[in-house]
Structures are given as structure tokens and as C-alpha cells.
Amino acid sequence: MADFECKNSNLGVFEPGNLKVQTIKVKKSDSSPPPPTQLYIVAPVSEGTYPLLLFCHGYCVQNSWYSQLLHHISSHGYIIVAPKLYKCMLIALNNEVKTAAKVTDWLCTGLRSVLPQKVQPDLSRVALSGHGRGGKIAFSLALGHVPTSLKFKALLGIDPVACRNPPTWPEPEILTYVPRSFDLSIPVGVIGTGLGNQPKCMMPPFAPNGINHAEFFNESKPPCSYFLAMNCGGYDMLDESKAALASLVCKSGKGSKALMRKGVGGIVVAFLMAYLGGQDDDLKAIVDAPTIAPITLDPVIFVKE
């Protein structure tokens, strides 16, 4: 089977939603109170109150490099806030989780002032997500390593990866290698990639076994779900040009990455619909029949209790 083989899908979650969305780039000087860092926000422009997703970007990438994926998700009726977690893409400091926590607190007081007119965030329905190292930051924040004023309703890691914590890498350490050890009472979803644990030429894998998506799922308590995008790489959900750039140093699936973005976007939307909206038909459909997705998902696991 070729990488990114196209399949027929009857699920609308894998296609852009019906809502027109707007990109909002917020600097510290653009809002009062000012956000603790620069923000990349995608929100519907139609009047309404929408659930909120806080998205943490991965290591060595920018928050804006996910624009196509975030637009897909937002067009189904979600406000997405993606903070810039550190100034230099090649340097990660110990304040990433603290920055994400400060942004979470800012949402209560500052978000409404930067959104389109008559667009309101529903702060009672907030989910947390992150990609790569940002997935670890999302898990760390959900686990309460830094307290926040908002409570998260759901957590979704997109190819999350920890590190083996040599002296130059930042804390916190969250993996315990004990099944179901994460002290979380909210639904957890994990999307993994089948190529992330493979090297690229002389470059080591970006998500080696033992610190990648499989371990994050293993340590999650029910209800938890797991989707492995078998023929995809860890950066294939980035915007097309950025994914092509990343493929120079990390293993990548063949062909256009549009189907990967559709696949990940659809899973995220189905997960949010289930746990922020109480509509779990699409999530159940993907779990019961993974071949309806536009990418090869194998395995798909759902643990209810």
C-alpha cells in the first residue's frame, strides 16, 4: 500500500468545516492586558460562542507552521490559540510550561479583546493539545506542573515526545514507565506516527522508542484513545512547504502531506466534538472503522474504562 493512499470517507470531519475562519497574530503590545508571549490565533468570524483549544507547537518549529491544520480544525467551530513558547527555535528553556500556563491564565482576561466582533470563547469548554515536544508540554500542563486558573476538559497529544533529560534539556520529567500512571481525570487522546522512530540518513530519530507516543498512551488512564498514522512522519502535519523542509532531517511519508493534515485534523475534530460537545458519533466511527480515514491508521485503540 502506498503512503498516503486516498480512501473514500463519509465523515465530514476529514474535510474543512462550513465556517469561515480568520488568522489573528497577537503581539504583547496588541492587547490589554498583554499576553505573556506572541500568539497565533485561528477563530471563526461568524457570531457565536465557541469552545477553545490551546495548542503547543513542537521543537524547532514555529506556531504559524501549522496554519493549514489549525484552519481545518477551527472551521468546524473552534477557537485555537497557539502561543510561541520560546524565542529561538533551537533553544528550549525551562519556562515553556510556565509560558503555556501564563497564556492559559491570560485567556480569561485578554482573549475576548482580540477576537472578531461578536465571537466569544466558551471558557467552560477548553481542550489542550500539542505536537512533538509541545505534546509533552501539553501533558505537563494538564498534569498540573504549573497551576492554571482554567480547567481543561480534554487532552490530545499529536505525536508527543519526551526527552531523556541530559543536563541541557529542560524539565519536567513526566514519563514514569508505569502503565496508567498519569494522574489525569480527563479524556486523553494520542495520535502517533509510524515513521517518527526511524532515522533519516545520519540523523537520529526525532521520536525514538521509549519516549514517544506509545509510552504517552501507555501511561494514560481511561478514557483514552490511540491512533497510529502508520505511513507518516512526525512533521508531516505541518504546512506543505514546512513539512518538505522538515523532511530533509527527519523521516517523512511520501507524496503530498495534505492527506496527513486531513487525517490528523479529522481525528482532532472528532475528539473535540466528543469531549467538548457531547457528540461522539464521528469518534466512534473512526475507532470502529479506521479505514474511513484518509490515511492508514493501524492500530486504533480505545479504552473506555
TrEMBL record:
<dbReference type="InterPro" id="IPR029058">
    <property type="entry name" value="AB_hydrolase_fold"/>
</dbReference>
<dbReference type="InterPro" id="IPR017395">
    <property type="entry name" value="Chlorophyllase-like"/>
</dbReference>
<dbReference type="Pfam" id="PF07224">
    <property type="entry name" value="Chlorophyllase"/>
</dbReference>
<dbReference type="GO" id="GO:0047746">
    <property type="term" value="F:chlorophyllase activity"/>
</dbReference>
<protein>
    <submittedName>
        <fullName>Chlorophyllase-2, chloroplastic-like</fullName>
    </submittedName>
</protein>
<dbReference type="GO" id="GO:0015996">
    <property type="term" value="P:chlorophyll catabolic process"/>
</dbReference>
